[in-house]
Design a protein that fits this description.
92 residues, alpha+beta, 4 helices
Length: 92
């Protein structure tokens, strides 16, 4: 396991972490979670080697994972909501 993979493995310990090198010097990060949910993110060489950009990428990944984990309501549930007419205004 290389240093980059170890870093991401420690940050995302609830996931199986797989890193694959990209031709531009970056990596393809794959996180495999419970129920075989897979999250992939391409990270450029510049993002990996710039502290500010790397912390932004880590924050973005955490946000995306949190969003993915929340269960959005099904379309049928949204369609069954009661609908009503919008108010109309008349000039005097």
């Amino acid at each position: 396991m290389n240093l980059i993979q170890e870093k991401f493995a420690s940050l995302f310990s609830n996931y199986e972490v797989i890193t694959q090198p990209r031709p531009d010097g970056g990596i393809l990060l794959t996180l495999r979670g419970a129920e075989d949910r897979v999250f992939k993110r391409s990270i450029s060489y510049q993002q990996l080697h710039n502290g500010d950009q790397l912390s932004w990428v880590i924050s973005a990944i955490r946000r995306d994972l949190a969003e993915q984990a929340s269960e959005l309501p099904q379309i049928s549930m949204l369609q069954s909501q009661q609908r009503f007419a919008l108010p109309t205004y008349h000039s005097a």
